[in-house]
Design brief:
With 512 residues, this protein is of the alpha/beta class. The protein folds into 2 domains: 171 residues, Rossmann fold (3-Layer(aba) Sandwich), CATH 3.40.50.300; 215 residues, Nucleotidyltransferase, domain 5. 39% of the residues lie in helices and 17% in strands. Strands 3-4-5-2-6-7-1-8 form an 8-stranded mixed beta sheet, with helices on both faces. Helix 1 crosses helix 2 and helix 3 packs across helix 4. The chain is elongated.
Length: 512
């Protein structure tokens, strides 16, 4: 629900602040269009049931020199002075205290230029702390020492330059459980693009991107990303405007052109320009497939029509404490393949997986898309039981599996009479199978029924390429789960290979 009164209160407060330095020193903070949209959405969107703010996290990714620090400082002061929160604790966090102090210093200067706020508060520069005695509210810049950050009851956290975090520890300490006693805590993260695709920033970037593209839904998370797309010419100045919402206001085009001319002659600096000025993540990895192409293969699956039909299974065990995936592939007479999926996680790891993977396993469990086994380990006997039940319904010809960590379940399934086929995870086995999956998707030869878990995993899938052009799923670069994709690749490969071999068995090899 949008509450214009609350939105305008936030706008009015922020635009009463004055800039503290530069060519706008002493002038009121006039929100630019993109900043105005963030503020009105953030403070004006209300949860109808609770009456408090809907958004708990706001992730803003925008190039340098677009006024990030000023916007972050203004939000910090809104939370400190004008959010009706008694004893509010507001923190600035970054990779080190010096970086965290940048936003703090901007906020302190805004207070010094505002008579009312300066009389209500005390700035302690030596401690990087601002206190409001009447309400006991305070705002402080933090060091990066995670060991000292437990037990906070934050009303607001301003996370500056998230891409510079060396690991996820500080983010987790300040966001998970922090502010549990608050009615409407807010995490405001603002950053430029980074280069490490195994970082917490890339994880949050990917999560924000999935929300923007409609892959997942989270009405508590507000994503804002400005940048030049990876698949366009980064030297085209038209895209510079798309990436820099303050261009022509705070940022001058002539300054960008000067920087561009410098890096044009120094190729080693081009990635810095692309990352810092155009907000492009510069360490390349290749997303396997456009999720829209996967959606085009949705189709409708008639389970009853598949009873007794030949099918091939792919089993990806991952880890006993993690997630196990099973894919079923049914060859159809018209050359298409029907796919079905099963997933398991341990009950005692479910909450952790929800936190780490940032997806609703609990909702998927209620919808029958994920099965939860007792304890803190995957119950492989339960998986075996499920496969035996499937075999009562369908003609299971083969089960493809990665032999790593699968000795127990593969032996048990063999004892039950199933034909087990080891499937290597190197380029030799995975490359032709992965390329074949891509071709089947692009040619709409798959029917998958729109499984939500598999849609999420397919969008996570990143492939690694060797010098010879071979590809395979890259679990390291795919920062979230892809177990179902690996299971599908193995099952589809066995189905396709058996289809070809059955043709040769029926007619023999034709000679020319």
């Amino acid at each position: 629900m949008y509450n214009e009164k609350e939105a305008m209160k936030a706008v009015k407060f922020i635009e009463s602040l004055k800039h503290g330095k530069g060519r706008w020193a002493g002038k009121n903070f006039k929100l630019l269009d993109w900043q105005y949209e963030i503020i009105t959405k953030l403070f004006g969107t209300i949860n109808e049931e609770t009456g408090f703010r809907q958004y708990r996290v706001c992730y803003v990714e925008v190039p340098k020199k677009n006024g990030k620090s000023e916007l972050a400082a203004a939000i910090a002061l809104k939370l400190l002075f004008a959010d009706n929160e008694a004893g509010a604790e507001v923190y600035s966090a970054a990779s080190d205290r010096s970086q965290a102090s940048l936003v703090f210093n901007v906020a302190a200067n805004m207070i010094r230029n505002n008579k009312e706020l300066s009389t209500r508060s005390k700035i302690i520069d030596s401690q990087k702390r601002i206190v409001v005695p009447k309400t006991t509210n305070f705002y402080a810049a933090l060091s990066a020492d995670v060991k000292t950050k437990h037990g906070f009851n934050s009303h607001g956290v301003i996370f500056d330059e998230l891409h510079a975090q060396p690991n996820r520890d500080l983010w987790d300490v300040l966001t998970l459980g922090s502010g549990a006693a608050r009615n409407q805590p807010l995490i405001f993260a603002i950053t430029t693009a980074g280069y490490d695709r195994n970082s917490i920033c890339w994880e949050i970037h990917e999560y924000a991107d999935k929300i923007l593209r409609g892959v997942i839904e989270d009405d508590t998370f507000l994503p804002v990303i400005f940048g030049v797309p990876e698949d366009v010419d980064w030297e085209d100045q038209e895209y510079w405007k798309q990436a820099n919402p303050s261009l022509g206001h705070i940022l001058r085009l002539e300054d960008m052109v000067l920087d561009y001319k410098k890096v044009k002659e120094t190729p080693s600096q081009q990635n810095n320009f692309r990352r810092l000025r155009l907000n492009q993540w510069t360490q390349s990895s290749t997303r396997f497939i456009d999720i829209k192409k996967w959606e085009e293969c949705r189709g409708e699956i008639d389970i009853n029509a598949l009873r007794g039909k030949e099918c091939y299974l792919g089993l990806d065990l991952s880890s006993t404490t993690d997630l196990t995936a099973l894919s079923l592939v049914f060859p159809l007479d018209d050359g298409r393949f029907v796919c079905m999926f099963y997933f398991w996680i341990p009950e005692e790891k479910k909450a952790e997986r929800i936190r780490l993977d940032r997806v609703p396993y609990d909702v998927w469990e209620r919808e029958g898309l994920v099965e939860v086994t007792d304890g803190n380990l995957i119950d492989y006997d339960y998986v075996i039981k499920t496969i035996k039940q499937l075999a009562d319904m369908y003609y299971v010809k083969e089960i493809a599996f990665d032999r790593w960590g699968s000795a127990y379940i593969s032996t048990k399934l063999q004892e039950e009479g199933f034909k087990m086929v080891e499937f290597g995870q190197g380029y030799a086995s995975m490359s032709p199978a992965t390329k074949d999956l891509e071709a089947k998707i692009l040619n709409k030869q798959l029917l998958h029924g729109g499984n939500k878990v598999m849609r999420w995993m397919m969008d996570n899938l990143v492939v690694r390429t060797d010098p010879a052009g071979n590809i395979k799923p890259d679990k390291e670069k795919s920062t979230q789960k892809i177990d179902g994709c690996v299971a599908l690749i193995m099952a589809l490969d066995r189905a396709v290979r058996n289809q070809y071999s059955s043709v040769y068995e029926d007619r023999g090899i034709l000679g020319l």
